[in-house]
TrEMBL record:
SUPFAM superfamilies on file: Pseudouridine synthase (SSF55120)
Cross-referenced Pfam families: PseudoU_synth_2 (PF00849)
Protein known as: Pseudouridine synthase RsuA/RluA-like domain-containing protein
Span of domain Pseudouridine synthase RsuA/RluA-like: 75-228
Record-linked InterPro entries: PsdUridine_synth_cat_dom_sf (IPR020103), PsdUridine_synth_RluA-like_CS (IPR006224), PsdUridine_synth_RsuA/RluA (IPR006145), RluA_PseudoU_synthase (IPR050188)
One MF annotation (Gene Ontology) recorded for this entry: RNA binding
One GO process term, biological-process aspect: enzyme-directed rRNA pseudouridine synthesis
């Protein structure tokens, strides 16, 4: 599905600093890129609601079809999620999501039972009621009924250790958000959480090696981070296949190592831009392509059910 462009009406309560100012006087706060709706000469009152129109650009996503439905039970739906589509609405994706696309396929009320990153493909269970979703999660938190999850990742053959057959990674994981600044990064870095992934070599040819990954904990980007730290990042991972920058940062959380990641992210961002702005709102336009990541949830076992999906790589 290509990128979406549309207008959206947004409403916000009048802020204290706007009281007794004319609508046109606060227009600057809205960047001049959006249109305020109403009488621009009118003074803003405490009870006013400010209504404005914004131009929304949503990046392109993959499309889910009926062929991607693995099972349709009374309590839940299981799909084979394609890479390149987020599950939930986020800042950049509002209509271009798994739940929105499934509405169009006749499933109006779904509650995703766990997360798969936007770029990760594979087995995804979605509850048909919030009650079932919470029952599912309670089951997973109980050691006796904990679910079993497996992934398959593809890396460059020349990055894997010579004698690699199986490997356990126990490197603790911290939340990494490059937009939070160095001070906040240090706080996040010092809040490392125990993590474990087991890796098994499935097959290897001259170019690629396919690795089976078993999760014992479920931290954000756990497999991508562990493979990156081990020096065998997923080959098409735009974030963690970074020439060792993330591994360096884990070793030495210096401001230089942090800045190196920032610089790389900025270069990556520019590479995805068309080099032109939207005539309506002035934002930088991005290329109409969907990124892929060779990371696939290949098995999910819960409550007597086992769902398996082979990756297409
Ligand atoms: Zn625009």
């Amino acid at each position: 599905m290509s990128s979406l462009t549309y207008y959206k009406i947004v409403r916000t309560k009048a802020k204290g600093r706007w009281f007794n100012k004319k609508l046109k006087e606060i227009a600057g706060e809205f960047n001049g890129k959006i249109e305020l709706i109403g009488d621009l000469e009118r003074e803003i009152e405490r009870t006013d609601e400010i209504v404005y129109k914004i131009h929304v650009h949503e990046p392109p996503v993959s499309v889910i079809t009926r062929d991607d439905i693995l099972d349709d039970k009374d309590d839940f739906l299981v799909i084979n999620k394609p890479s390149g589509i987020p599950i939930h609405p986020t800042v950049n994706y509002n209509k271009n999501t798994v739940t929105e696309q499934l509405k169009a396929l006749g499933f109006p009320h779904l509650f995703p039972c766990y997360r798969l990153d936007r770029l990760t493909s594979g087995v995804l269970v979605l509850a048909k009621s919030s009650e079932y979703a919470s029952q599912f999660n309670k089951q997973n938190q109980n050691e006796a009924t904990k679910h079993h999850k497996e992934y398959i990742a593809r890396v460059n053959s020349n990055t894997i250790p010579l004698m690699f057959n199986q490997l356990q990674c126990d490197q603790p994981i911290f939340t990494f958000n490059g937009k939070r600044g160095y001070e906040n990064f240090l706080t996040d870095f010092n809040d490392q959480k125990p993590s474990r992934t087991d890796f098994f070599l499935l097959k290897k040819d001259i170019e690629y090696a396919t690795i089976r990954c078993i999760l014992h904990t479920g931290r954000t980007h756990q497999i991508r981070k562990h493979l990156s730290i081990l020096g065998m990042p997923i080959h098409n991972d735009e974030v963690y296949n970074d020439g060792g920058l993330f591994a360096n940062l884990c070793q030495t959380p210096s401001i230089e190592n942090y800045a190196a990641i920032q610089n790389r992210a900025e270069t990556q961002r520019q590479r995805k831009q068309v080099g032109a702005q939207c005539a309506e709102c002035g934002v930088d336009l991005y290329l109409d392509t969907v990124s892929n990541l060779d990371l696939h949830c290949s098995m999910y076992k819960f409550d007597g059910f086992t769902y398996i999906s082979e990756p297409d790589f």
